[in-house]
């Protein structure tokens, strides 16, 4: 069974940086796409960034230029480097593995950005 474990969340001041990690119990090479999503209180879960098996990346407009998604297949880990953090980036960040026909989700890690 796939198990995704996020880490790296925490409290940071606006303008600061965090790096989130998503470690798979197996190999992330099984995935067609790995992604990071976030959910703020009272809001729907939204895509932050994803990376395909071919290395193509996509970002939400709100984070483009500030966040970078990357993967390390040898470590079975996907990262989200978050720079220039804003209070509106606050939320629970979830890792998602998309592999036909099933999608898997991690439990999430909380990111809080203070002013």
Major sheet details: 7 strands, mixed
Secondary-structure element pattern, one letter each: EEEEEEEEEEE
Structural class computed from helices and strand pairing: mainly beta
Which runs of at least 5 residues are low in confidence (pLDDT < 50)? none
User: What is the typical, i.e. mean, pLDDT?
Assistant: 95
Written account of the structure:
This protein has 115 residues and is mostly beta strands. 0% of the residues lie in helices and 55% in strands. The protein is built from no helices and eleven strands. The strands form two sheets. Strands 2, 4, 5, 6, 9, 10 and 11 form a seven-stranded mixed β-sheet that branches. Strands 1-3-8-7 form a four-stranded antiparallel β-sheet, with no helix packed on it. β7 and β8 form a beta hairpin. The protein is globular, with a radius of gyration of 13 Å.
Topology:
Elements: E1 4-7, E2 10-13, E3 18-24, E4 33-39, E5 46-52, E6 57-59, E7 67-72, E8 77-82, E9 91-99, E10 102-105, E11 109-114
Parallel strand pairs: 2-11
Antiparallel strand pairs: 1-3, 3-8, 4-5, 4-9, 5-6, 7-8, 9-10, 9-11
